Request: fold
Amino acid sequence: MVLFPDKEPYLATRMRAQDLANELGHLTDDMFRTWDKDPNNNLAEIYYFSSSEWVASNRINPETNRSFADWAEFFGPVQAAGDNYTRIVS
Reply:
């Protein structure tokens, strides 16, 4: 059963912007960008690591249609509905 057959699905997400999330994101995204550039690293580990929600530099920013430069660009924060959130990622 399709509830809205005439609507294109919107597949984007964001996180609540909080201090711990910011710290985890900075650490994980920095490690990923370092690992991704080292030819001695195992590709399986890089692929596994790239699926982490704490890696933003391999995600698309729908505002620019380009990858986020780093975690700081993704994190924002952006005010919405009375709270702080990250930028939307698709």
